[in-house]
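Section 3.1: Structural characterization of target chains.
Under the original work plan, the team committed to producing a structural model for every single-chain target entering the pipeline before any wet-lab resources were allocated. The record below documents one such target. The sequence was received from the expression subgroup and is listed exactly as submitted; it comprises 189 residues.
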Amino acid sequence: MDLLNTEARSQGHVVDHWATSEDVHRWLVRQGVTSANATGQVFPDLLMHGRTLRAAVREAVVARKQGEKVGIDDLNAYLQAYVTSPFLQRDEAGGMALRRVARGDGAASLLGPVAEAAAQLLAEGDFALVRQCEHPDCILWFYDRTKSHKRRWCSMAQCGNRQKAARFRNRSATQSPQASPRHKLRQGS
């Protein structure tokens, strides 16, 4: 879901948090997909590949959520570019750990773990729990892991609070001044 949320809406406009290939690389580092010095370079086509993958995943998630046929060819192209092999390494405690490391070259391979996570969500995720924020000005998505599975907002602190404040303003605006307890107190009632 974090991939889809690299675009957000602010003041009625969609904001793409990926403006350069470096932005995509920094996002991959923050997500733990790669390390800051893993490749030694940022692929110039990483922005284009990142945006293409994001669009394919968004289209697939929306189709799956709506019960429609999911297009999988674009996502499969990224999965096939993600060639890995086992790699034995020492961990911090001196023990050994077996990891899979990317062996392909290029931006499409670098995005492979993201494509794999998206494919796993599409294949195994409970789409009753995949939701888009209910605030009309928000385009963010989330996976509802709450106990009651009744989460409605990407963030209660932001979108939930904005929606509640808007409802309060609407209720206050529709109440007549005579019905207001404050108005009656000012009149001496």
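The chain has a mean pLDDT of 85.
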